[in-house]
Give the backbone structure.
Amino acid sequence: MKTTSQLFDECLSNVRDDVKIELDMSFALADKIDMILREKNISQKQLAEKIGETEAEVSRWLGGTHNFTLRTIAKISDTLGVKLLTI
C-alpha cells in the first residue's frame, strides 16, 4: 500500500510543467500582494472597497490559485501604488 506522500508524488509527476509554473506564479503573486497589504497595514476588506470588489473575492485571490487577469493585476497595482509585475 502506498503512503500519502508516495501518492502525492505520483499525482504531482502527472501534472504538466506549464501547470506547475502557472501555480508557482499564482502563489508568488498572491504572496506578494499579501506582503504589501501587511506592510501598508491594509486589510483585505479595505483593498476590496478601494477596487470595488467583495472581501470574499479578494480572499479568493490571496488563496493562491486564482487565475489573475491583467486587468485585476493592474487595478491592484494602481490601488496599492506598487508594480506587481515586471516583464
Notes: The chain has a mean pLDDT of 91. The CA atoms of residues 36 and 46 lie 13 Å apart. The helical segments are 4-13, 17-39, 44-51, 55-61, 70-80.
